Amino acid sequence: MSETYEKPSEHTYTIYSKSGCHYCNKAKKLIEKENPHVIDCDEYLIEDKAGFLAFINEMTANKMTANEMTANEMTANEMTANEMTANEMTANEMTANEMTGNKMTANEIKTFPIIFYKNQFIGGYAELATFYEKQSAFDF
Questions:
Q1: How do beta strands 99-100 and 103-104 pair?
Q2: Sign (positive/negative) of CA torsion 125, 130, 135, 139?
């Protein structure tokens, strides 16, 4: 199954996107200077939506998100008022049904964009914005 779909880049950001997705466009614009690898998923979704979502779930299952990579960064269980909660999520982001408490369940990712950084799952647009802001703070 995973040979059918393009895997995230090990060298840069990867954005799984679909046409007409407002948050996909915002994500691409936010990190455009990083030259992200953008994968248009329209064809995947038309031809085999269930298979593609199974592939995404395989890619994100049991992986730490990029926001959890270091001990100094917050995990999804430690979300603060500065981060989006399930009640603040929009239709193009993770929904409350895709959250377990405040922790995203990787096996229920169904919304776009789906973003990775160097093959590490980040999340959607809100998680990208937080991650990118933290990363940019250390760029000199």
A1: antiparallel
A2: positive
> What is the mean pLDDT of the segment spanning 85-94?
42
Task: Say if 109 falls within a structural domain.
Answer: yes
> pLDDT value at position 25?
97
Q: Is residue 7 part of a domain?
A: no
Identify the domain containing residue 106 by its residue range.
13-137
CATH label of the domain that carries residue 118: 3.40.30.10
Global pTM?
0.68
Nearest to 113 by CA among 22, 7, 10: 22
What is the pLDDT averaged over residues 20-35?
97
Domain membership of residue 118 (yes or no) is yes
- The vertex-66 CA angle with 44 and 110, nearest 5°, equals 30
**Does any domain span residue 93?**
yes
Residue 49 has pLDDT above 60, yes or no: yes
In sequence order, which residues have a C-beta less than 8 Å from that of residue 45 and are 6 or more positions away? 18, 52
Whether 104 shows a pLDDT value over 50: the answer reads no
CB of 35 within 8 A of CB of 12?
yes
Q: How many domains does the chain have?
A: 1
